[in-house]
Amino acid sequence: MPMLNRADPESQGTLLLIDRDAATARLLAAGLSGCLVAAPRIQAVANGKQAIEALRSGAFDIVLADLSSIADVSERTEDVVARLVKLAEGALVLALSDGASISGAVAAMRAGAHDYVVKPINGPGMAARIGELAQRHGKTLSIEATAPTGVADFAGFIGASSAMQFVYEQIERIAPSAAPVFITGESGTGKDVCAEALHAKGPRVGKPIVAINCAAIPRDLMESELFGVARGAYTGAHEDRKGAAELADGGTLFLDEIGEMDLSLQSKLLRFLQTGTLSRVGDASERQVDVRVICATNRNPMQLITEKKFREDLFYRLHVLPIHLPPLRQRPTDIMVLARHFLERYAREERKAFSGFSSEAASGLIANEWPGNVRQLQNLVRRLVVMFDGGEISALMCAAADIEGQNRAPAPAVPVRDKTSAILPMWQQEQHIIEDAIARFGGNISLAAAALEISPSTIYRKRQSWAEMVSAVA
To answer: Confidence class of residue 24 from pLDDT cuts 50, 70 and 90?
Structure first.
């Protein structure tokens, strides 16, 4: 049984990792070691039999069990997991799988596993999940997950949720490349922050990063703003002027709201990306420019292509390294982290003293839909600081400052059903509620379960029973 990270077991926590893929085990172990306090002793084994031997010979704080690795033709997966849970004596047990089968999740949760994690998952993501589960199940671990606080501030981003950790890892991997990046996300999710982070963490740091908003510049001026203009090209062009592409030479060109660019200019942008050369408006000569192009849009690019508003060939030229920024409603654990950060920042600017948010105010903020995402939350907190003198922020203060919420159209009234209309069976209504919650949290079953105040295992069991009902009918 190889030891991936040796340490004094009397002073540090222990983690048992069961995975027959040695390379995957090493990567996950290395990632966890960097995200957990005091670099825990991680013991890796290849199968269920070795895991049982390890559990009999020593105590572990956490057990991560890959379901395909513990599978045994002579014993059901559910039985193996049950034995692991019993031998673990109160440890936090997580089942890992490639997500190909819901039945595996159901079996693991029935057997006592605390959660089911779909692979691949990185070290920070797993550390965050461990921290969330330990808190939910009241587990006191000698291993302390540091991801929720340790990566709360990343190159201008604030947030430590699993969704944001995935974004951080993408930025780290993508930043060194010179290939184009295509950022998508709703308005207010921080696409400009993402572009700046990619530039700051790449080899072009120290060189210029020039941003141009394709939606804010009139179409007849866009070409000159992007590629520059030669003296005498049109009335008022009294001198040569560089465009954004030339100003960014050696650095990064950020094209925000790329979906709003006029089709005629899109063809010229495509040529620029293919050749690396540009011509100023009114000048036939070409100039060689070395820039890394990052673009962003809050619209669905495939829909724009279908509507003939965006060139398909340009899209595939730009869509080399995609990054999607999740909306704030899909990462509720970041809401109060962001709110406290903005409160501290604006209170310092306004020279006021605030002690924080009351529990009622915090609950209200977390429950908000935040259609304007981080920018909306930022504006709300700034409004609070300006409107009030200090102290603890209450729910009433938040309601008074929530101008967007006050102006939002009320939800449509629920129509009264006709007495003769069909009533859905309870299980179908329950299915709609649960599936809607999962969709609200971007497929994260743990977050959906927490919002519904049920166990994740309950969701897995119900999904399995629904699938069996459909199979029976078919």
So the answer is: confident
Identify which of 454, 471, 462 has the alpha carbon closest to the alpha carbon of residue 431.
Answer: 462
Reduce the DSSP state of residue 14 to 3 states and report it. strand
Q: pLDDT tens across 319-347, in order? A: 999 999 989 888 877 888 899 899 999 99
pLDDT for 380-409, tens place per residue?
999 999 999 989 999 899 988 887 776 665
**What one-character DSSP code corresponds to residue 89?**
T
- Report which secondary-structure segment, H or E, holds 119: none
**C-alpha to C-alpha distance for 106 and 458, rounded to whole angstroms:** 9
E strand or H helix at 255: strand 252-256
CA distance 295 to 301: 12
- Give residue 301's Cα distance to chain centre: 20
Euclidean distance between CA atoms 372 and 84, whole angstroms: 46
Report strand pairing: 92-97 vs 115-118.
Answer: parallel
What number does CATH give the domain 329-404? 1.10.8.60
Q: What is the pLDDT of residues 30-87, one digit of tens each?
A: 767 655 554 557 888 888 888 888 888 888 888 888 887 877 656 777 788 888 888 8
pLDDT at residue 409 in the model: 53
pTM (2 d.p.): 0.58
- Per CATH, the number for 157-326 is 3.40.50.300
Distance of CA 148 to CAs 76, 130, 165, 326, Å?
36, 10, 9, 17
Cβ density class 222-247: b for 16+ within 10 Å, e for less: bbbbbbbbbeebeeebeeebbbbbbb
Rounded to an integer, what distance in angstroms lies between the CA atom of residue 396 and that of residue 380? 13
Tokens of 235: 């009335």
Q: Whole-angstrom Cα distance, residue 231 to residue 118? A: 59
* Residue 298, C-beta contacts closer than 8 angstroms, at least 6 positions apart: 184, 185, 186, 187, 191, 257, 259
First CA to last CA distance, the chain: 47
Distance CA 284, CA 279 (A): 6
User: What distance in Å separates the CA atoms of residue 442 and residue 264, rounded to the nearest whole number?
Assistant: 36
As a whole number of angstroms, the distance between CA 225 and CA 241 comes to 9
CATH 3.30.1240.10 is right for the domain spanning 3-149: no
- Return the number of other C-beta atoms located less than 10 Å from residue 284's C-beta: 7
DSSP-assigned beta bridge partners for residue 212: 255
User: Across residues 91-100, what is the average pLDDT?
Assistant: 74
CA atoms within 13 A on the CB side of 323: 30
